[in-house]
Amino acid sequence: MGSMISNYIVIVSISGVLNALLALFAYYKKTDFAGTRAFILSSLTSAIYTFGFALELSGSTMPEISFWIKVEYLGMPFIAPSSLLMIMYFVGLERLIRKGLITALYAIPFISVLLVWTNDYHHLFYQSMYFREGAPTPLIDVVMGPWYIVQGSLTFGCMLAGMCLILWQWNRMKRVYRRQLFTIFIGQFLPALGAFLYLMDVTPYGMDPVPVIMSITSTLYIWAILSRGMLTAAPIARENLFESMRDGVLVTDLSDTLVDYNRAAADMLQDLDASAIGKPLAQLFLPAGQDAVDYVMNSDPLISEERELGWNMNGETRYYQIRSSPVQKYGGHQVGRMIMLIDVTERTLLQEKLLQLATVDSLTGIYNRMHFMELSRGLLNEAALSLAPVSIILLDIDFFKSINDRYGHHYGDMALQHIVTVCSSHLREGDIFGRYGGEEFVLCLPETSLKQAALLSESIRKDIERSSISAISGPIHVTASFGVVEARGKNLSLEDLLSEADHALYTSKRNGRNAVHVSSGSSITPFTPV
């Protein structure tokens, strides 16, 4: 039987060593987990408790054993409150940890230590202590005093509260974090069970099983720290932050297979749920359209980058800013990448609207004068290098003031829009069409000779003449006058070309309107198609 006690002492001593190592490891480990200090205190006090218990078992006299019991209480009362604080940090309830709560949790343990060391004078903690009959080695039994019950209630209350917090968070956690949560739960449950059995006096020879159990829980903690990163950060607090982010977050491995995502990402990607874990990112991006798929196929997971993509979402086009950055483990080893999806639809549409206001005529939907001039200058510069012809057409609605005066400004606006519709039907991709001012319009035509521009002007003039605008009083017929000029071989600015086209347009007006005149620089002549 003495051999059993010796083995018990060895196991308890190992438990003390493991807890001491846990405290040292947590102290020197660099981490952003705010509950590390509470974990260190819990491990350190557990080591004091278990070493004290091992020395208690090795004692042979009442004074010797009584002393080591007092040493045990330098650690034991602080274990449960420290563990509860660590769990509160772990589940993201650090906002509740204030000076008042810490004082309330540790006041009773400090009083317990004082009462245990002075128990001979008041017997508030132990009413009496005596050797257990029939024990194979000197073992102490006690008669509980009133403060023993107070301390025991705090210990069980803290352990029960910690387990309840873990169960409360269980279903909210992703599977990847549940192993850590389970380890902490076992670290609370097994000692609580052992303490309960000890108080019920159903343990062998009335010995406290908690120090032995701590050898199991401390081993679990070491495993969780080394393999699961338990002290790296507060996973539940991190998870709460992860899930509360308004921006979507996707985490992939090096092969671009999805390993994690948050709730916002599930709202942004169609059919993104738990079953998507393990699927290629390209497959998940497929419903979003070709731009999204091209991004996945062509982007490098090793490089941080940022770009904006058009995104198909249930038939609606959204705009997402995509930020990709590598995910690294300690030591710089890359394990994947994180992709953040930021919904910039509102901003992008506002920018497009502002750009449209700055470049497009609000009534007709074509370029305004300023933007037409900017684009046409660029086109003329390119044509000068390639020696390609460029032509300018200036056209003006005939008798536009009469339309406004007779039919009203609403029909005047309709006339402007009608001219734009007719002209647009004749234009090619690359042609620049703008409202020059009032009822005047201008076209800049790349790779178009003077004759080609004149023929186009004549076709537009005929279509305008043959068409009409519907009004209550009957159809309104509109005509337009044209002036055409070519830039080939002329070292003229855009303003000079427009001035020349304006002279040709004025000639059309002066010679009866509804006509096309071309300017060759030296002369202005009416255009007559052959």
From TrEMBL:
Positions of the GGDEF domain: 388-521
NCBIfam families, per the entry: GGDEF, sensory_box
PROSITE patterns per record: GGDEF (PS50887), PAC (PS50113)
GO cellular component, one term: plasma membrane
Gene3D superfamilies: 3.30.70.270, PAS domain
GO molecular function: diguanylate cyclase activity
Organism classification: Bacteria, Bacillati, Bacillota, Bacilli, Bacillales
Biological process annotations from GO: cell adhesion involved in single-species biofilm formation; negative regulation of bacterial-type flagellum-dependent cell motility
Transmembrane segments: 6-26, 38-55, 75-93, 100-118, 147-168, 180-200, 220-237
The protein, known as: Diguanylate cyclase
Keywords of the record: Membrane, Transmembrane, Transmembrane helix
Superkingdom in the source lineage: Bacteria
Ranges for domain PAC: 303-356
